[in-house]
Amino acid sequence: MNYIHNTITKLKESSPAQVEFYQAVEEVLDSLQPILDSNEQYQVHSIIERMIEPERQIMFRVTWVDDQGKVRVNKGYRVEFNSALGPYKGGLRFHPSVNASIIKFLGFEQVFKNALTGLPIGGGKGGANFDPKGKSDGEIMRFCQSFINELYRHIGPTRDVPAGDIGVGAREIGYMFGQYKRLTGNFDGVFTGKSLLWGGSLARKEATGYGCVYFAQYMLEDRSDTLAGKRCLVSGAGNVAIYTIEKLYQLGAIPVSCSDSSGAIYHDSGINLDTLKELKEVRKVRLKEYLDVHSDAKFIPIEDYPADGNAVWRLPTAQLAFPCATQNELSKADAEVLVANGCIGVSEGANMPSTQEAVDVFLDAKILYGPGKAANAGGVATSQLEMAQNASMQRWSFEEVDEKLKVIMRNIYCSASETAAEFGQPNNLVLGANIAGFRKVADAMIEQGVV
Ligand code: NDP
Ligand code: 2IT
Hints:
Blueprint lengths: L1 H13 L4 H20 L1 H5 L2 H5 L4 E10 L5 E12 L5 E7 L5 H17 L6 E6 L8 H15 L8 E4 L6 H15 L19 H18 L9 E4 L4 H12 L3 E2 L1 E4 L2 E4 L6 H10 L7 H4 L4 E4 L18 E3 L9 H9 L4 E3 L8 H10 L2 E3 L1 H4 L2 H15 L5 H25 L6 H19 L4
Helix pairs in contact: 1-2, 2-5, 2-17, 5-17, 6-7, 8-9, 8-15, 8-16, 9-10, 12-13, 15-16, 16-17
Bound molecules: NADPH dihydro-nicotinamide-adenine-dinucleotide phosphate and (2Z)-2-iminopentanedioic acid.
């Protein structure tokens, strides 16, 4: 314990003011004690010290001109965290809250997540503190082009392969790819999440949400239970939330909520998926407009959220919870309410949506808990399937990709739960996922020498 404590203390000194990053590192290191105790070579090779220091961190200025002719400046990032298992792979996030701490926590999580998929991908993450809300299409394009004017020299199909995350979808990937192609002359698989017209994979858009529900299904099956008839709370109203809701319906469950940064919708008879897609994928408007179509639904504005948490998790009884918006959106108090209301399982579509204290509540209550780095790995796994299709100039059907996604999610679940059992903590998928991911990366690093 002393070793881990000292490592965290040193990290705080060398990388000041990065609270989200410390949170992600502490959670992983807490799980690794048993494997560090039983395996001296990881300490001899300073694997922990190397894993928590990114291989490379790129920070750059992004200047662009808004529709009024004013020059605007943002901070751009790409953190290339670990390439032991393959080229750096991970999304780009455009959100005003983006800073070095957030990108580093996401990049660190990505390393373990990508290892868990069993596919040959290293981990990285990037983005900018750019707020896409209220920007015109031309402004988005100019921003993306300027972002790539710097980033293009660091990325490539066997080097670093970005994709989407919050605020980055097919439109932004299109503008970034176009600029990359213009600067390099290469038409290659340098991004994933591309349009189906020019190299994208069927089912990539759906993959994170679908995978998160498959993960819940596998957790339930282990307790001889199913999703059929289960009432589910979902947060978020973006890519991950929408396709979580879609798959929940397909498997017979009833999603009753969704949310965005303005508030939450509760619809007792079930969220209307067509309305949600129309509002968020087509019109890109605030969720309150859902009430114009469904007057029997309720809207809880963000101003009315409890001081110690998120209104979504305080909604009437549901058996399952799917946090699909952002980090730390589920507090200890939220977790206590969920458990008291009879929630039997949580599957995380977002990255690190539950605080450490909330995770402890779930583990103590012994409910099913699928941590984000396992439960939301279907997105990046399908990105790797897109890379494989691009490299072999093939195109697989939706059903083929979905079938592979199911197999990958099952393997992730089995690997996390078997590893948890091996280390004497059956059902602790946090421990299982962290150790299973760690082992692959650590062993590859040792084999590749001191680099
Ligand atoms: P989107 O941008 O499509 O949607 C994000 C949603 O979350 C929006 O409804 C947004 O509301 C809400 N949200 C974002 N930030 C906040 C905030 N600070 N407070 C309240 N609501 C917020 O992103 P994705 O759906 O792609 O990503 C959601 C989560 O899933 C993230 O944690 C991401 O890292 C993770 N993830 C995504 C993957 C992918 O393939 N896209 C893969 C694996 C994980 P609003 O629009 O009002 O801001
Ligand atoms: O957090 C994630 O895994 C993603 N945003 C997807 C990354 C990817 O490369 O598809």
